[in-house]
Design a protein that fits this description.
The complex is a heterodimer.
Chain A: H1 7-20, H2 25-38, E1 43-48, H3 56-59, E2 60-64, H4 67-75, H5 83-88, E3 95-96, H6 108-118, E4 124-131, E5 136-143, H7 150-171, H8 184-194, H9 199-206, H10 210-224, H11 229-239
Antiparallel strand pairs in A: 1-2, 1-5, 3-4, 4-5
Helix pairs in contact in A: 1-2, 1-7, 2-7, 8-10, 8-11, 9-10, 10-11
Chain B: E1 2-7, H1 16-33, E2 56-62, E3 65-74, H2 80-83, E4 99-107, H3 120-134, E5 139-145, H4 148-155, E6 159-161, E7 166-168, E8 171-179, H5 182-192, E9 199-200
Parallel strand pairs in B: 1-9, 4-5
Antiparallel strand pairs in B: 1-2, 2-3, 3-4, 5-8, 6-8, 7-8
Helix pairs in contact in B: 3-5
The chains are: A alpha+beta, B alpha+beta.
Chain lengths: 244, 227
């Protein structure tokens, strides 16, 4: 059941709100790396799991693995013997790397992959399978000593699924250009905030009352689903809704 | 030819003959097949406290046979989320006349997957959007298993999480809010090859509803969907 203060639960929900309002691939990745970093994960991969004859490199949605590990993994075709992607086909639920089923005595190839990963400080990990009708994908994250308990795993499940979904949605060509969410005056007010002006100062510059400026700031915040003025300015800059 | 019928208190009498088979099918699918044992009842009918007069059902009927269905319950009345799973919702209770909670979507096994014509599950998802748009709904809340999320995302259903997933009997479950808007509906229609509204509103001339337009064909992007 819920603890009194589900800190990571709240952070995960805020994260999903933020990436849904982020229109750039890089913007989503930056936020993803930050939040999993805060939980002790320094590496990740998001990919469709290759089946026989397919190469991981072609299926990758986002690659946050150490370059040499990715290179080694592909060169040795570790995907064929890695127990992690294999288990994704057999389960709906996320799982820790340490709990992945394989015969630790007999399946030497699988054991080898897990051991070689440790050379790159991928000591512990968490994998989120993502099932489609015609394919299985996964988000797999790893670190040296990540913080994994029931609460953080639940938060990571949400974070993984929605990040993957957002990146896929962004990769799909849209027929129309994404509409600007902010109105002209909202963008103008944010531009001045980005330059460090207070609401009062912005009011003087634009010849509006301070109350009106605050109103536009709150509207912008509501549209971008951010929590405060700083976050609103940051997101508007990342999305290109305002430029300095 | 399968039709999707709107069934609500105003026209329920026209569909009385379908209700017993409907509850028995729910038992077959949710208790026998999916093993949601909390729903088990000795009379072999799966019916709960949310199957009230205010519930709206979509019945997919083909040749007088019920082959699929879905339920929508007003959030101004008790819902699964408010009564049974409040801890799944961290954003605060939803009691809005323009939001309904969806549940109990199913298709009978023989009619699942690809057959001639659109998939029945996709048809139901499209049809409930049509129902929502026609009656002024802006969103749907749902308590569902996490594996639905990528499927929603892929077909254009914008689902916003209301809380984090919880493990229940080995299933990962969470609560979401899905937007009900024209953009989502037209995207769904395009995906399954529908060019106009599909719902059958028998005996519902008294119900206030907006009639939806036919959908003009759009050029689909040719880039690959799956990766």
């Amino acid at each position: 059941m819920q603890q009194l203060e589900p800190y990571w639960g709240r952070r995960a929900l805020d994260f999903v709100d933020a990436i849904e309002a982020t229109d750039s691939f890089a913007g989503v990745i930056t936020q993803f790396e930050k939040i999993i970093g805060d939980l002790g994960f320094h590496a990740y991969i998001m990919a469709r799991i290759p089946t026989a004859g397919e190469a991981l490199a072609e299926m990758t949605v986002a690659n946050g693995w150490p370059a040499q590990w990715f290179e080694l993994y592909n060169r040795e075709n570790f995907n064929a013997v890695d127990p992690i992607p294999r288990h994704c086909f057999n389960t709906l639920n996320p799982f820790e790397w340490k709990d992945v089923p394989y015969d630790r005595e007999r399946d030497l190839a699988a054991d080898n992959v897990m051991m070689r990963a440790r050379d790159f400080r991928l000591n512990a990990g968490f994998c989120i399978p993502i099932h489609y009708d015609d394919a299985t994908s996964a988000v797999s994250i790893a670190g040296e000593r990540p913080y994994l308990d029931a609460e953080t795993k639940s938060a990571l499940h949400l974070i993984g699924v929605f990040t993957h979904g957002r990146l896929r949605a962004l990769a799909r060509p849209t027929l129309a250009a994404p509409a600007r969410r902010l109105s002209e005056i909202e963008a103008e007010v944010l531009r001045w905030a980005a330059r460090g002006k207070t609401a009062w100062e912005t009011g003087r510059i634009l010849q509006l009352s301070e109350r009106t400026v605050r109103w536009h700031l709150e509207e912008a915040q509501r549209k971008l689903m951010t929590k405060n003025k700083t976050a609103t300015v940051a997101l508007a800059l990342v999305n290109g809704e305002i430029n300095l | 030819m399968q039709d999707i019928h709107v069934v609500r208190k105003d026209n329920r009498h026209l569909y009385e003959g379908y209700f017993d088979p409907y509850f028995r099918l729910r038992h077959e699918i949710y208790v026998k097949q999916r093993k949601w044992m909390a729903l088990d009842r000795p009379d072999g009918r799966e019916i709960d406290q949310f199957d009230t007069e205010e519930a709206v059902y979509l019945f997919c009927i083909d040749n007088d046979q019920l082959i699929g269905a879905m339920r929508a319950v007003p959030t101004v009345m008790p819902t699964l989320m408010s009564e049974i799973f409040p801890y799944l919702n961290m954003r605060g209770p939803i009691h809005r006349s323009d939001v309904y909670e969806l549940s109990r979507i199913f298709v009978i096994p023989e009619r699942r997957g690809e057959h001639a014509g659109p998939r029945v599950d996709m048809l139901l998802l499209t049809a409930i959007m049509e129902y929502g748009l026609s009656t002024g709904l802006t969103g749907f809340s749902i308590v569902l298993e996490s594996w639905w999320l990528p499927r929603f995302e892929r077909c254009g259903w914008k689902a916003r999480p209301l809380g984090v997933p919880h493990m229940m009997d080995g299933m990962s479950v969470l609560a979401v809010l899905v937007d009900c808007d024209e953009g989502t509906w037209t995207t769904l229609c395009s995906q399954i090859g529908l060019s106009k509204p599909v719902l059958t509103w028998r005996g519902l001339t008294g119900v206030n509803r907006r009639s939806l337009p036919d959908i003009s064909p759009r050029v689909q992007p040719t880039a690959q969907q799956a990766q």
